[in-house]
Prior knowledge:
The protein has 433 residues and is of the alpha/beta class. It has two domains: 276 residues, Mur-like, catalytic domain (UDP-N-acetylmuramoyl-L-alanine:D-glutamate ligase, 3-Layer(aba) Sandwich), CATH 3.40.1190; 139 residues, Alpha-Beta Complex (Protein-Tyrosine Phosphatase, Chain A). The chain is built from 15 helices and 17 strands. The strands form three sheets. The chain has an eight-stranded mixed beta sheet with strand order 4-3-2-5-1-6-7-8, sandwiched between helices.
Amino acid sequence: MQNHPTTLADWLHVLESMHPKAIDMGLERVARVKSSLDIHFDCPVIIVGGTNGKGSTCAMLESILLNAGYRVGLYTSPHLLHFNERGRICGEPVSDDALIAGFESVEAKRGGTSLTYFEFTTLAILQLFAEAKLDAVILEVGLGGRLDAVNVIDADVAIVTSVDIDHTDYLGSTREEIGFEKAGIFRPGRAAICSDPVPPKSLIKHAETIGADLWLLGRDFNYSGDKQQWNYGGRNQRRNALGYPSLRGANQLLNASAVLAALEVLRQRLPVGAQEVRSGMVLVDLPGRFQVLPGRPTVILDVAHNPHAAAALAQNLENMGFHPYTYAIFGAMHDKDIDGMIAHLKDRVDHWCVTDLPLPRAATAAQLREKLLNAGIVPQNEPNAECTIEVFDSPANAFLNAQSRAGENDRIVVFGSFLTVAGVMEARKSGYH
Length: 433
């Protein structure tokens, strides 16, 4: 690059078009540049992969460790509103200036090696973490595991939260194929935790083949609970009378138990007390994961973007109690299993507001409408219709329409993509509420 960009926005714009492919699976190029940058960590590293639940698991780990007084680096993707969200040090997003310095370091060391946007930015944030004198590093896998840029780092503890069908173009079309890709973050002799209640045989076999220390839910760790509290039991540690995580949803105890298994593994290096676990669980905050906003009508933000996540969203909506009508703001990528998502939610939604999204990869609102019709949803045209499908050019306009029609006891659920949720969050932030 002849003239380096001087702002974060300009850097990101340049990085988007630097590599011929948006996704280019493989670790050779990333490993070469990592070696040139001499990125390494003297503190424990936890890598979190899985189809769904990665973000929640990372957020709980960060919250507990911060409450225990540790200096923590957290890398996640994608972001909702600002790129800086992807890298957090001690709970705070990294600054524009720090990111620009990181990008300049990568650019100076990559030589002729071409990197994708994700690879380049991942390396820059890893470099920032390596220089920050951290006590713990938490890294969320972007896509799959085995060939994801994050996997250039050897994890002390690797967690696979769940395995389901998603990203079939890259990971395979069965849970067994995808399970093998997810298990690629495991390392010989190190803890490999899986909180999927029915782990694929391929994941178990890979862990055994490489000699990882495999922790399975129901065998090596488990949880139990009632309406007031829950308990964790691991190989050598029990934690009782825990408060439920502040993150809502049916699967959060699966994620929380994997978090406590990871902390059990690391208890000599990162000791964490009972009160710190309780505080961390209660104070954890993660926008866009079954996030119920205050006010009426009730607004729910959920980045569910595959059938497995849509099924959890449907269950969570069912558990909320009665609302006369449910409005859905729905936008999705065309390469997702849109029919599978609709199948789980069509009986939970009365009024559909389908939207275009600002990305070439997105399905159009018209295509989403067609899929709803093909799923057997029959909209009505009369003034007080019980079922409607409306088409919009943006999540913001879809949300405004739903707000104008919804009664105060109704609810509006926003789902299908990070971009759908981000569009509504941006609209609300701008004062459209």
